[in-house]
TrEMBL record:
Matches recorded under SMART domains: VWA
PANTHER family: CALCIUM-ACTIVATED CHLORIDE CHANNEL REGULATOR (PTHR10579), ZINC FINGER (C3HC4-TYPE RING FINGER) FAMILY PROTEIN (PTHR10579:SF43)
InterPro entries (UniProt xref): CLCR, VWF_A, vWFA_dom_sf
Keyword field: Membrane, Transmembrane, Transmembrane helix
SUPFAM superfamilies: vWA-like
Pfam family, one: VWA_3
Identification of the protein by name: VWA domain-containing protein
Residue stretches making up the VWFA domain: 23-212
Gene3D superfamilies: von Willebrand factor, type A domain
Ranges for region Disordered: 1-23, 311-335
Positions of transmembrane segments: 385-410
Biased composition (Acidic residues): 316-326
Length: 416
């Protein structure tokens, strides 16, 4: 995808790399609270075991699956020892369905809930490579062992790259648990779901495992944006990763032909404490600096990912300066003129006291160029005569009724 260390050419014909099989690690809470019998009259652990069995049976052959547990072996009261209780019972790889189901079926709720440590170890289990990796965490309780705080661990994992996603499934209707699982999922671009029945858990677990096949087949290409448009990396459609420091502007270029539409989005992972009131701005400009379109997202308070997007058609601005002089009207076989659009990612973040500024925050930029689709026309007076007539009639009727009521009230008042 990249034509050089900091550029990617739209017309490169390089061979696509062979995608690795999707890798998924299921992380199951086996702490003592999983004995509770509040899901369809069954214990939480039995519902989870049934769901695991059905998911393993339906697993696509190409998926590499691993299973890690927490709180499954230590029965004592020593918190320090109990908070180290996490093991991988099925290594990540091609699945032996019989062994995997047997390993889960023998689990019995036992100990503490070291969610943060289990997530950190699960990421190590999945290793590195060119494919996206997913962790699916199933738990009924809040972490009882912090540090490490599981939400902070999720931010650390997100800061290492954009190829690890953590999805969370909550088995207990507890607000603290919900907030913690939401935080973990949001930090890595994952999802949170509350499973209130055996069917809910099974269906959602199957969806998440199957979704691993739909995530990026390869790691987002690393690219280095510049501080001006001129000489910025030239990007073809794809997904890119970069880093941006506080209040920085990073520039990229995208070639867009006549009749095409640019669609771009950016997400910045806030992997460290920042001050309130923040935002991210994604702009598309012409090479002479004229702004074509912008997308912005802003917030106040804690968040883990800030995103913005935009779309722009090469036909929207009739006086665009083209990189090529189109000259005479093109023939059917002529190559359409190309507009180089400058994309600039800006952030309005400021660090809290003591927050490290380097390395920059993780940035994921998605670029696509498709056939232009006309934007819907906005309403205008020239096309709204029927509406204007109705409004006029409504005004006349309202005035008439108001006048009659006023005359009746005045007449009544005089009589009295």
């Amino acid at each position: 995808m990249l034509a050089g260390p900091a550029s990617a050419r739209a017309d490169d014909d390089q061979a696509e790399p062979v995608a690795e099989p999707p890798r998924v690690q299921l992380v199951l809470d086996v702490s003592g609270s999983m004995r509770a019998t509040d899901i369809d009259g069954r214990s939480r652990i039995s519902v989870a075991q049934q769901a695991f069995g059905e998911v393993v049976d339906a697993l696509p052959d190409e998926t590499q699956l691993g299973i890690r547990v927490l709180g499954a072996t230590y029965k004592g009261q020593d918190k320090q020892q109990g908070c180290r209780d996490t093991q991988q019972i099925v290594p990540v790889g091609p699945v032996d369905r019989t062994k995997a189901k047997a390993a889960v079926a023998t689990l019995r709720p036992t100990g503490f809930t070291p969610v943060g440590l289990a997530l950190r170890e699960a990421a190590k289990d999945l290793g590195t490579g060119t494919t996206a990796r997913r962790i699916v965490l199933i738990t009924d309780g809040e972490d009882t062992c912090a540090p490490p705080d599981p939400c902070q661990v999720a931010r650390e994992l997100a800061a290492q790259g954009t190829t690890l996603v953590v999805d969370t499934l909550g088995l207990a209707p507890d607000e603290k648990v919900r907030k913690q699982l939401l935080c973990i999922a949001a930090a890595t671009g994952g999802t949170y779901t509350a499973a209130t029945s055996a069917d809910d858990l099974t269906d959602r677990l199957k969806q998440l495992v199957d979704r691993a096949r739909d995530t990026y087949a390869t790691t987002p290409a690393k690219v280095d944006g510049t501080d001006v448009c001129e000489g910025a990396p030239l990007l073809s459609p794809g997904v890119y990763t970069d880093r941006e420091t506080f209040s920085e502007h990073r520039w990229y270029r995208v070639p867009v032909r006549a009749g095409q539409e640019l669609r771009a989005s950016v997400s910045i992972a806030l992997d460290r404490p920042i001050n309130l009131d923040h935002g991210v701005l994604l702009r598309a400009t012409a090479t002479d600096g004229r702004e074509l379109v912008r997308g912005v997202d802003a917030g106040s308070g804690r968040t883990d990912v800030v995103s913005a997007g935009l779309r722009w058609s090469a036909n929207e601005d009739g006086d665009d300066e083209r990189d090529e002089d189109p000259g005479p009207a093109p023939t059917a076989s002529a190559t359409p003129a190309v507009t180089t659009v400058c994309l600039v990612v800006s952030n309005m973040f400021s660090p809290r006291a003591g927050t490290a500024k380097d390395p920059g925050m993780p940035v994921e930029l998605t670029v696509d160029v498709v056939a232009a689709s006309p934007a819907p026309d906005g309403p205008d007076l020239g096309r709204g005569w029927v509406l204007l007539l109705l409004l006029t009639l409504a005004g006349l009727l309202t005035g008439l009724v108001t006048g009659l009521l006023t005359r009746w009230w005045v007449a009544t008042w005089r009589e009295n």
